[in-house]
Every structure is written in C-alpha cells, then in structure tokens.
Amino acid sequence: MKLPTIGAAVLAAAMTLAAGHLTAQSQPQQTPAQDDSEKEIERYRQMLSDPFSNPGFLAVDRGEALWAEKRGTKNVSLEGCDLGEGPGKLEGAFAKLPRWFADADRVMDTEQRLLWCMDKLQGFDTKDVVARRFSGPGRASDMEDLTAFIANKSSGMKIEPQLKHAKELEMAAIGEELFYRRGGVMDFSCATCHAEEGKRIRLQGLPNLSVQGATAQATMASWPTYRVSQSALRTMQHRLWDCYRQQRWPVPEYGSDSLTALTVFLQKQAAGGEIAVPSIKR
Amino acid sequence: MNRTAFVSVFAALLIGGPALAQQKPSPATVEAYVKSTFGKASPEWQARIAPDDSLTVCNVTRNNASSAESDAIIKRELARVAYPADGKLLGDWKKGYAVANNGRGGQFSDPPGTVAGGNCFACHQLDPKEVSYGTLGPSLAAYGRDRKYDADAMKDAYTKIYNSMAVVPCSNMPRFGSNKVLDEQQIKDVMAYLFDPESPVNK
Q1: Exposure string over A163-173, b if 16+ CB within 10 A, otherwise e
Q2: pTM of the model
Q3: N or C, which end of chain B has less CB nearby within 10 Å?
C-alpha cells in the first residue's frame, strides 16, 4: 500500500491533537471519570487503527526498495534471501518466524535472519545497519523498514509458531524461563506486569501474556507497529529492548538469542492470532 | 548467591525431580542465553541481574515459595531492613509525593546521577483525586487514616517499603531500601505521604 507523505503527516498531526484532547479531558476529573477516560482511550485507539492514516506503511515502502537494492561485495539484492519458505519467498514467512534454519543451524527471528542474509548472501558489512537498528529523528533504520516490509507480507495470515526442531523447542522453553526471571534493582520480570488479567501501569492497560489466547494473539499479531509517541515504526526487537529498559535490566544485545527465545515463547502464546501489520499504537 | 551456589540449587532440584528436568531447560543453558544477551554489560550491571538467595527461590518457584522457603526469605530479608537511627519514620509528605510520582532512575537510558523515584503511582492508587494510577498493587488511598495513624502500622509500612519480601515473600514490589533504589530520607518522605493526616492520601 502506498501512502502520500503529506497525507500521513496531516493525519499524524490530527492524531497528536486527539491525544492532547484526551490528556486535557482526563486531568481534572475524579473517580467516576474512570469510565470516561477509558472510553476516550478506546476512541483514540480506534482512530489509530485506520490503515490509511498509518505512517507505518511508509516504512513498508522503504523496506520494499531496500529488499531489491543491490548491495555488498557481491552486489546482489536480498531477493535471494531464504526467510524459511524458500529463497525470495516472502508470503507467510513472517508468520512462521522465528524458526530454525538448517544453513545456520540456529533459530532466528526476522532481524537475525536479515543480518545473516546481508552477511552471507550480499557480503554486506552490517555494522552500519546495526548502528541504525532503531530509527530516530533524521536517521532511518534499514532493519525496521525491511522487517515492516517482510511482516506486511504475512498480514491476514495466522501466527504459526514453529515448534518441531529441538532447537525451536529449546527456544520456547528458555523464553518461558526468561519471562519469569526476576532481576535488576526493582526485581522485575516480564511476568511482573504481564501475568494477570486487567492490570494497568498508570492508565496503560497491560496484556496478560502468561496464558495462550486472544490477548496474546492481539498483542503479537500487531507488531511491527507505528508508535505515534515515538514517530517511528518499531519491531518486537525494540519492544523487548524497551521492556528490559523499564525492567531496569542491562541493555539487551540486538538480535541476540534471549530476545529470540522470548519471541518464540510469545508466538507460542499467540498461536493462531491473525496478523495485521504494521499496526498503529500510542 | 554466587553462580556456583545458584547452579547447585538447580542441580539439587533436577536430581529430586526428573519429570521437571525433562520439561525445563538446564540452568546452564538458561545462563548461556542470558550471557548471550546481557554479557556485554558492565560487571556492575550484570551483578544487578544475578539473583540473590531470595530471588533465586522466587524464580524457581515462580513466586510460589513453599512455607519453609517463605520463612527463610522473611528471616533473611528482615535482617536487611535498616530502621532510622533517630527513630522517626515520617518525613515531609510533599517531598514524598514527588518521590511517589517520579518514575525515573535505574534504567539504562538514565543519565548518570539521575535521582531515582519510587514510582508508586505506576502500581497503586494513593491520592484519590489522581486519576492516573496503576492497579498492579492494591489501592493505598486513605492508608494512614484507615489505620488510625497507628505506630505499629507505620513500622510495618516502613518495613514493606524498605524490603517488601521481609513482609510478603516473593512480593512483586521492589525492595526499595535493600536494593538501594531509595535512600532513608526518601522512604521517610513516602511514609509521610501515606501517614500524615495532611497528606492528600488521607483527605
């Protein structure tokens, strides 16, 4: 899907205004306003879910161009990259990631596989793209854009966690262990915030990811997402990085195995969820 | 607890429960994953995610420690609570509000020297007029008033804030004093926010 830049900017501005309206509304009110606040938040969410106002699709378009661009010492595109469904086959690949790859003998998520293809297929030095792993003002991220493009090719399909190979099963089990592992100065784990129904931090609702089902499905099926508050498309790599930041843990290494293990576990919780990406969130 | 002791606790568990061993990955495998993701952090940061004796039990049991383990945790953590030398538990409630409302500190994105807050509102209702509060912990509205500003209740609350596991083993609440998130004065100020009759919490 193509989206004119100006249209996206205008709509993003409109959403920012809507957010400001929400804040102003909820400030002076008291306990009975709880329901009103939640209705306002829900209305805001519905506005955000309109795909034609989602700048995340600009990342998809940039990713499409990057996928076809010849780069590296071998001067080839990524079109020969095997994301699990065969070289260059994009449809449905993201729905089955992370998965085990025979050529690397490793379980990899989308980003890890992309870095592998850049290195092995293109002979492309990944130092720069890893440095730009998360976009910022005036700094595009090839990794975010490529992941958005690849993920979008699974939109409408169902999350199919791959749990056949021994290393995939190990990843799922390790991911579950890590989900419950407490640490940092606050003693927080993923489960501190994501293991009970209907809880909030301040006004922010927290999905319960400790059980399989609709909540985990809705969560995992909506990443990558365009974060309005960050004006950036973000992938699960960034979500987990930000979770560990808020957990007061050390900086997690980008594209490292604990993050992939957690992703495998979360995909397992979310099996069958219908992917609709890039989504748009607060 | 050092790594050797940590591993031996798991090893003992594995010997005791072969069924568990089949489902759960080996502790060594888990540690290898943790190392692959956090191994480049400084030793000081890595020390923060090395579980101590109490947290090790909480991790293994997923916060459901046995009765004997719970007793051991309470004993161990209570010994780590330092009460104010001047005997005064209450500081300034206005400063306490600022601590309760501050969610900064302890994050890798924080600039050096960032003063940490308690971020109490993230999980608790306090001032009933504040709409933006979390629900991971119970409501603490009217906390002091409901307890008639009782001296024992004050000491219990100080203990809970200083080290939650000295009261509730494997509590989800941070051990603010023992983990050096908040200093003594900050805890006294938060205490005043809970117990001062003039605090909005009790209005």
Answers
A1: eeeeebbbbbb
A2: 0.87
A3: C
